């Protein structure tokens, strides 16, 4: 019936209507009503057309004319002729078949525009997924059959209806969920593969495990500071690392493992000393060099020229095979900024090797901040002291304002500041200067010496003039803490 209607000129009428709409929406004032009304009407009609295409795809697939072109399946033919992906083409045919065979009320509502495309997908992929569930769909509204679900699909949003549909499916056929859970358990995996620049994470978790991981990430993801430009995905990556650190820091996998940094870094003393003794001027030079390298790489990638590479200069070091770099055992070299950050709050051990790399002497591990000193810093600072951040102590570590190696191992409470893991990394990567402020807290400034100043806060408080108020955080709670850079 639908095919006859389309053959009777409906396609030509549809094409003309689409051309009129496309022409109209490009005008300053879209024809046919206000922009919002036109938009809602277009979305509704798109959902109706999607349902019509799904229904028609079943008839086209069963007709078999597509096979004359040599394709192995109708989905392959449809993908090739329309440019859509094979997965989407197969989903379209599957949706049409399920609508026709098991969901007559849903099909009628979708063609009438009463339910949207997302709700239709939920009915197909969640509800009509087993024989007992399809039998349960035949019940009346009072029996919570298909008509009951269609009523909710027309009223609820996509997410709310999907939650309802999943509960309905679990009640209609609990055995299917048990089978699906066992299959999900068999599919569960986590892959962590070392790559050139880091680690590639992939995997699949059951609903239970995925929810637990998701809840853990939500727990450790503190509200971002105003200057935090990371995406949600980037912050979740940091959250995953934070969860791992919490487990190791608090010895949750047994005794003897709660020893920072939980990573073994092998480095000769001179390289370690240079990394943490660099100071503001050397670190600024390092930062500038990195920026120049990035800019030069972009120029080369655009084909604007190729700069001759400088000859390799090996720094003075006892073990030439290590090339004066810090190496993360089992993973490879780490940048100087990472080495300096790890050295801030770690256990440092002295190992003396002979000419044939035999161990001659192993010195005792000395913790940079431990015991009462660590508790004193945490009690004084309370949260991460980076401007605008309120991460709790459990998500951070102590940063040495005066580096430990440079100062011959002196660990003074007055030279330590509590920073969350993310901002501790930011301080080292961007060479943020931290100085004691006259108010008793800390003053933060960029590597160029520009103070971090207050911005307009979420509460709408006006910002102070440029450079007027340094971004300081005092140990005494302020009446109105500004949101800072």
Integer average pLDDT = 73
Q: Which bin fits the share of residues in helices?
A: 40-55%
Distance between the termini: 64 Å
Rg for CA atoms: 31 Å
Low-confidence stretches: 255-261, 279-291, 293-317, 357-362, 404-409, 454-485
Largest sheet: 3 strands, antiparallel
How does the helix and strand content classify structurally?
A: mainly alpha
Beta percentage is 5-15%
Number of H- or I-type helical stretches: 17
Q: Largest beta sheet: what is the strand line-up?
A: 3-4-5
Shape annotation: elongated
Q: How many E-type strands?
A: 14
Keywords:
single chain; 485 residues; mainly alpha; 3-stranded antiparallel sheet; 17 helices; 11% strand; elongated
Task: Characterise the protein shown here.
- The chain has a 3-stranded antiparallel β-sheet with strand order 3-4-5.
- The longest helix is centred in the N-terminal third of the chain and has 29 residues, at 35-63.
- Mean pLDDT is 73; it is low at 255-261, 279-291, 293-317, 357-362, 404-409 and 454-485.
- The chain has helices spanning 2-25, 35-63, 74-82, 86-102, 104-112, 117-127, 131-136, 146-155, 158-172, 174-187, 207-220, 232-249, 269-277, 279-301, 336-344, 371-381, 421-429, and strands spanning 189-194, 199-204, 265-266, 326-328, 332-334, 347-348, 351-353, 359-362, 366-367, 396-400, 416-420, 433-436, 442-445, 471-473.
- It has 17 helices and 14 strands.
- By secondary structure, it is mainly alpha-helical.
- It is elongated, with a radius of gyration of 31 Å.
- Among the domains are: 2-183, no CATH class; 371-473, no CATH class.
């Amino acid at each position: 019936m639908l095919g006859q209607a389309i053959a009777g000129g409906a396609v030509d009428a549809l094409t003309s209507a689409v051309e009129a709409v496309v022409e109209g929406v490009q005008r300053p004032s879209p024809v046919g009503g206000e922009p919002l009304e036109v938009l809602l009407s277009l979305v509704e009609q798109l959902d109706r057309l999607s349902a019509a295409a799904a229904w028609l795809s079943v008839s086209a697939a069963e007709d078999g004319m597509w096979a004359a072109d040599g394709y192995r399946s109708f989905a392959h033919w449809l993908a090739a002729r329309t440019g859509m992906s094979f997965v989407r083409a197969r989903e379209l045919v599957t949706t049409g078949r399920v609508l026709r065979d098991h969901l007559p009320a849903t099909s009628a509502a979708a063609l009438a525009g009463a339910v949207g495309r997302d709700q239709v997908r939920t009915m197909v992929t969640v509800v009509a997924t087993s024989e007992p569930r399809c039998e349960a769909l035949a019940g009346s509204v009072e029996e919570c059959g298909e008509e009951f679900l269609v009523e909710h699909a027309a009223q609820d949003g996509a997410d709310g209806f999907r939650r309802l549909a999943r509960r309905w499916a679990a009640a209609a056929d609990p055995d299917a969920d048990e089978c699906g859970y066992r299959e999900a358990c068999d599919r569960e995996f986590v892959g962590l593969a070392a790559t050139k620049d880091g680690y590639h994470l992939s995997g699949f978790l059951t609903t239970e495990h995925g929810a637990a991981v998701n809840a853990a990430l939500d727990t450790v993801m503190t509200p971002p500071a105003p200057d935090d430009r990371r995406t949600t995905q980037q912050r979740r990556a940091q959250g995953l690392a934070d969860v791992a650190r919490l487990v190791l820091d608090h010895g949750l996998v047994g005794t003897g493992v709660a020893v920072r940094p939980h990573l073994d870094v092998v480095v000769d003393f001179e390289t370690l000393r240079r990394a943490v003794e660099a100071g503001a001027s050397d670190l600024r030079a390092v930062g500038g060099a990195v920026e120049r390298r990035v800019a030069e790489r972009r120029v080369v990638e655009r084909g604007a020229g190729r700069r001759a590479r400088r000859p390799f200069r090996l720094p003075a070091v006892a073990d030439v095979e290590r090339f004066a770099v810090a190496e993360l055992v089992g993973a490879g070299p780490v940048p100087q900024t990472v080495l300096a950050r790890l050295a801030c709050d770690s256990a440092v051990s002295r190992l003396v090797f002979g000419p044939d790399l035999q161990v001659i002497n192993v010195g005792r591990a000395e913790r940079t901040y431990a015991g009462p000193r660590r508790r004193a810093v945490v009690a004084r600072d309370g949260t991460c002291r980076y401007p605008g951040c309120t991460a709790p102590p459990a998500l951070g570590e102590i940063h040495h304002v005066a580096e430990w190696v440079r100062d011959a191992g002196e660990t003074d409470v007055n030279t330590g500041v509590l920073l969350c893991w993310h901002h501790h990394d930011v301080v080292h990567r961007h060479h943020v200067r931290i100085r004691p402020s006259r108010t008793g807290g800390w003053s933060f400034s960029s590597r160029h010496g520009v103070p971090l100043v207050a911005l307009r806060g979420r509460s709408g408080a006006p910002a102070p003039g440029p450079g007027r108020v340094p971004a300081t955080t005092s140990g005494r709670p302020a009446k109105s803490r500004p949101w800072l850079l």
